């Protein structure tokens, strides 16, 4: 092989390695890998069926739209909206004042948006 062919092959290999080795993680994946999270959302009202773990930020439009039935908040204040793009009826929920996680069941008989949340964001 000629020298420039070696250089081209090496460049292609380095580019492929960088793409594989340095893929940027989203907030949810990063929180899961690090073992830390500030808020988790669940499909069922007994805190089972994990839909996602979040450190901060929010989601303008949920993949699991209208499926959240329970929430654990370890830190901060979070606002949950009935409609996408942070619109519609909303409830703000947060961790306990003593620093303990707060557990919210959104099931029937509560004032919250059981199976109606379409977006959320951290507000404090």
UniProtKB/TrEMBL annotation:
Gene3D superfamilies: Crystallins. Pfam families: Crystall. Residues 38-123 form the Beta/gamma crystallin 'Greek key' domain. It comes from the Bacteria. Keywords: Repeat. InterPro entries: Beta/gamma_crystallin, G_crystallin-like. Belongs to the beta/gamma-crystallin family. This is Beta/gamma crystallin-related protein.
């Amino acid at each position: 092989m000629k020298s420039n062919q070696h250089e081209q092959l090496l460049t292609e290999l380095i580019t492929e390695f960088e793409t594989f080795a340095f893929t940027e993680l989203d907030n949810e994946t990063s929180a899961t890998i690090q073992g830390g999270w500030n808020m988790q959302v669940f499909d069922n009202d007994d805190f089972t069926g994990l839909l996602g773990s979040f450190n901060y930020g929010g989601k303008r439009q949920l993949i699991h739209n209208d499926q959240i039935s329970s929430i654990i908040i370890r830190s901060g204040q979070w606002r949950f909206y009935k409609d996408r793009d942070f619109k519609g009826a909303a409830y703000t929920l947060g961790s306990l004042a003593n620093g303990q996680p707060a557990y919210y069941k959104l099931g029937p008989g509560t004032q919250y948006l059981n199976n109606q949340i379409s977006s959320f964001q951290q507000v404090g």
